[in-house]
Amino acid sequence: MKRLLACLSIAATLATPTLAQEAFFDDFDKLDTGRWYVSDGWSNGAHQNCQWANDQVRAENGNLRVGFAPKPKGERQYSCGEIQTRKAYGFGTYETRLKTPKGSGLNSAFFTYIGPQQGKPHDEIDFEILLRDTAHVETTTFVNGKSGDGEIGSGQSHALPQPSDQDYVTFAFTWEPNRLRYYIDGELVRTMDTPATIPSNPQRIFFSLWGSDTLTDWMGAFAPITAPIAMGVDWVAFTPLGQSCAFDQSILCRN
């Protein structure tokens, strides 16, 4: 399964993230700029047909809105949204409830990442919905810049309970030193326990929505966008490993 490096460019001001140990739950009644940094003024490479724009990320009616709009920025035809935590987080449970738009050539993602921009190897844990098919989500990891270890590829596709453009879906993963478990609407859908596929470095939490004219094999042919669209994030949370049931919606409260 083809997978592209999710984050090639990070603002220099975020080069050395602080490691966060505390649990948090954010329902986006407002955008907490002490917790979140909004990407602005660059893109992740020539494959991307949009540039990150801070006006594509905002808290609105109790949701985080991560947008994509037919609004030129820089040398790109479109503006798109990305948000990341200022701190890095380690082993624990990461959870969110979100709804996406639909459209070929677009990618909505909830993921964690750290890399050379922060003086670390490229480690990453992903949920990605390729919006040409909102009935499925892809899960992936990167360890030291590699996805999988030779014959053991880390990318998998999973059916969603309902298309993500029709209703909200809850995504979660529990990351341990020797195991990674992915959940969709509270149901375990994947367990990874091959050491070479389990990241070890604390990472920032990201949400992004972006498009591509060139990655057609993976994302489909880009369908031109004529009006603004957005991914809506109802909430996001982190619970450190060893803690349980930090908020009512958590999968940790089910046991």
How would you describe this protein?
It is built from 1 helix and 18 strands. It has 255 residues and is an all-beta fold. The strands form 2 sheets. The chain has a 16-stranded mixed sheet that branches. Strands 1-8 form a two-stranded parallel ribbon. Strand 15 and strand 16 form a beta hairpin. The longest helix has 4 residues. It starts with 18 loop residues before the first strand and ends in a 15-residue tail after the last strand. The N terminus is likely disordered.
SSE topology:
Blueprint lengths: L18 E2 L3 E3 L9 E3 L11 E3 L4 E4 L2 E7 L8 E8 L2 E2 L2 E8 L6 E9 L8 E8 L5 E7 L13 E4 L9 E8 L2 E6 L2 E6 L11 E8 L4 H4 L9 E12 L15
Parallel strand pairs: 1-8, 4-7
Antiparallel strand pairs: 2-18, 3-7, 5-6, 6-7, 6-18, 7-17, 9-14, 9-18, 10-11, 10-17, 11-12, 12-13, 14-15, 15-16
Descriptors for this entry?
globular; mainly beta; 1 helix; 18 strands; about 260 residues; two-stranded parallel ribbon; single chain
- Rg over CA atoms, rounded to whole Å, is 17 Å
Order of helices and strands: EEEEEEEEEEEEEEEEEHE
Helix content: under 10%
Molecular shape: globular
SSE-based structural type = mainly beta
The parts where pLDDT drops under 50 for at least 5 residues are: 1-13
- Put simply, the count of helices is 1
Cα-to-Cα separation, first versus last residue:
34 Å
- Count the beta strands: 18
* Biggest pleated sheet: 16 strands, mixed
Give average pLDDT, whole number.
Answer: 92
Taken as a percent bin, the fraction of beta residues is: 35-45%
